[in-house]
Specification:
single chain; mainly alpha
């Protein structure tokens, strides 16, 4: 750049040195950039940009972007006015003219129905163009960046300019089809930032108070990853043994992005095969995806099995410590990317996987505290209004992608499941009101059948797929929310409501085996036959679905458990609680291999402990002179205790349950 200078102005410091506020020797590439390995991105800052007070997002967002969208809005409204409107003065525009304009607007609105179905906001409620325009203008004034970006796409059906919101997808050509979110990680703070690689924290980032701006944050985070061979083994283990539990990722998409990540790291890392590394390759890594990647590694290490330990050549303690490190790295990536300001689907996926880990290490309250924020981010992205693929809708922006829409539905319902299923433990409060949920259940489809650019080939409900467990538990949690609502209602429906919900739950429990049938066989197998023949992940999912149904029955009737010992009207609830508790523990004991795996998960331990508490209450109400019956009930509790001990080396919650159950049993001996 300095070789062809024609102007007489002083040479400016390079952009990278100015950004880091360090001294530059003003040659290009300069010495500090060469020492940092960033010579390929070293360039002089243009003086007009350097001296201007409008070099931030305000210049683009508040001027160019606003004017652009206002012009489109005026054009859109003008096209809907009556043909003679432009020749009529204000005084001549009579009521009949207004009526004519309204009629034409309504007619046009109906003709363009498919177009307006694309808008996330207008898909439900008042489908008024006037109201939409008014709210768009409010979005500009009030700084709702996601909404106004979406408005641009809805009016033009074009993606947001990559200059305004650059993403790894828009910068990395061949990988553009992976379709990252509208707001990239990290969000550029100026036009210069938007067009250059980002190595350190952006100016004004909260962590910049603690971290030196010259630190290459992305390189620091990437250096925490295990070796590539270990990463590949851990990712493979996750999708073969663990992904069924949360099911918020699309395996082919994740694996493609993971390969891209490995390529970026390899380009920036010196090696025998890469003697001339390109450090700037790290600048285009998506921090939101990197956080998801860290959490996949974390859960694989946290829930590791002996076979994988041998492959990785590490022991269980080392795996646990490395898993904790991966969790911390995921959190660091999360906050370095400023997920509160930069909303993305990947950030929500990472949050959900973090919740699985948090619950297992006795940090359920931490997960609950942030769950509300995650739900608001999802709503802001429009995930709560994705509807169903069977609807005649047209999507824009991020949601043009079928894979993204289906992944969004998985994420949204996973957030709902956490929100509703734990509401009773938090004073019956939850964040997602059913009237605000306009997203259909995820499709009953395997990941390999969900392909971008191809029609959605959803399987029948009675055909088992990778999504069967998720869809089953989402149905159960919807009934459970109704139970929680009734508990919180000042005018409770009484015992009649309990009996009514009992019928609904029982019907749903009877349908569970139908969802796990093998479509290739001509006959439907019974629950017992399925339990005996279902292997691997399918067996785990079936067992968990059956346990879930019994747990919902137990939670429904438990408020009347004590009364059932004194009042004959509630004997049904007492018997149902005891029956469900025994069934839950029976399912866990039915298969040692399944039990060892299932009890690693916090939710399954929660169900098992709830069953044990019911059996303990029943034991306390038995007559002392009935020795055989008392001994049988004590044996049931000892078996439950032994079950929990199989997972105490992994789960803090399991250790808590063991201590509590042993304490309860010791009180009976005294």
């Amino acid at each position: 750049m300095s070789d062809t200078r024609t102007c007489s102005r002083p040479i400016q410091s390079c952009f990278q040195c100015r950004k880091r506020k360090i001294k530059c020797n003003r040659t290009y590439p300069c010495a500090p950039c060469l020492l940092r390995g960033e010579g390929d991105v070293c360039r002089e800052v243009d003086r007009s940009l350097a001296n201007s007070s409008k070099t931030t997002v305000e210049t683009l967002d508040d001027v160019v972007h606003r004017v652009s969208l206002l012009e489109k809005t005026v054009k859109e409204l003008s096209s809907r006015l009556p043909n003679h409107a432009d020749t009529v003065g204000p005084k001549d525009y009579t009521a009949s003219d207004r009526q004519h304009a309204t009629t034409k607007l309504t007619s046009t609105n109906s003709k363009d129905n498919n177009k307006f179905l694309s808008t996330i906001r207008s898909s439900y409620g008042t489908a008024s163009v006037d109201e939409d325009v008014a709210m768009m203008l409010e979005d500009f004034a009030m700084g709702h960046r996601v909404n106004r970006s979406r408005a641009t796409q809805d009016l033009e059906c074009e993606p947001v300019s990559p200059f305004l919101y650059p993403t790894p997808a828009s910068q990395d050509g061949a990988f553009g089809h992976l379709g990252h979110s509208l707001l990239s990680f990290p969000h550029p703070s100026s036009p210069l930032d938007a067009m250059s690689p980002v190595f350190g924290l952006a100016e004004g980032h909260p962590l910049s108070l603690l971290i030196d701006p010259t630190v290459n944050i992305t390189a620091k985070l990437v250096s925490l990853l295990p070796s590539e061979s270990r990463c590949r083994l851990l990712v493979q283990f996750y999708f073969e043994r663990l992904e069924w539990y949360s099911k918020v990722l699309h395996a082919p998409t994740f694996q493609a992005e993971a390969e891209h990540l490995m390529c970026q790291i390899a380009m920036a890392t010196p090696s025998a095969s890469n003697p001339d590394p390109v450090p700037s390759a790290l600048a285009h890594i998506s921090l939101s995806f990197l956080s998801v990647y860290f959490m996949v590694l974390c859960l694989s290490l946290h829930l590791i099995e002996p076979g994988l330990c041998r492959q990785l050549n590490i022991n269980f303690t080392e795996a646990t410590e490395l898993g904790t490190k991966m969790y911390s790295a995921a959190q660091a990536t999360f906050y370095a990317g400023n997920f509160f300001a930069n909303h993305s689907l990947e950030a929500l996926q990472s949050f959900i996987l973090m919740g699985v880990y948090r619950q297992n290490v006795d940090e359920a309250d931490s997960h609950w505290a942030l769950l509300g924020s995650a739900i608001k981010i999802a709503q802001n992205l429009g995930i709560s209004r994705l509807g169903s693929e069977s609807e005649n809708r047209k999507y824009t922006g991020l949601w043009k992608s079928l894979v993204k829409r289906e992944t969004g539905r998985r994420v949204w319902w996973s957030l709902i499941f956490d929100d509703w299923s734990h509401a009773a433990a938090h004073n019956g409060a939850y964040s997602v009101h059913p009237s605000q949920n306009h997203t259909a259940l995820p499709a009953n489809i395997n990941d390999t059948d969900l392909v971008e650019g191809q029609p959605l080939r959803e399987m029948p409900e009675t055909q088992y797929t990778e999504m069967t467990l998720s869809r089953t538990r989402y149905r159960f949690v919807d009934l459970y929310r109704q139970i929680v609502d009734n508990m919180q209602s000042p005018s409770s429906s009484g015992y009649g409501f309990i009996l009514e919900m009992d019928v609904k739950l029982r019907k749903m429990q009877e349908e569970v085996p139908l969802y796990f049938q093998d479509g290739s066989s001509g006959e439907a197998l019974s629950k017992e036959q399925l339990l005996a023949t279902a292997k691997g992940v399918k067996g785990l999912e079936l067992t968990l679905s059956l346990i879930m149904g019994e747990t919902r029955q137990l939670r429904l009737h438990r408020p009347f458990l004590f009364r059932g010992y004194k009042d004959k009207r509630f004997v049904k609830s007492r018997d149902q609680c005891i029956s469900s508790a025994r069934a839950i523990l029976g399912y866990l004991k039915s298969n040692d291999e399944h039990c060892a795996i299932l009890l690693k998960w916090w939710m399954v331990l929660f169900y098992g402990f709830a069953a044990s508490v019911v059996l303990f209450i029943d034991l306390c109400h038995q007559k002392v002179d009935d020795a055989p019956d008392l001994e049988h009930r004590r044996a049931e509790l000892r078996e439950a205790l032994d079950l929990f001990k199989t997972a105490e080396h992994i789960s803090t919650v399991s250790r808590n349950a063991i201590v509590l159950l042993e304490g309860l049993m010791s009180t009976l001996r005294h």
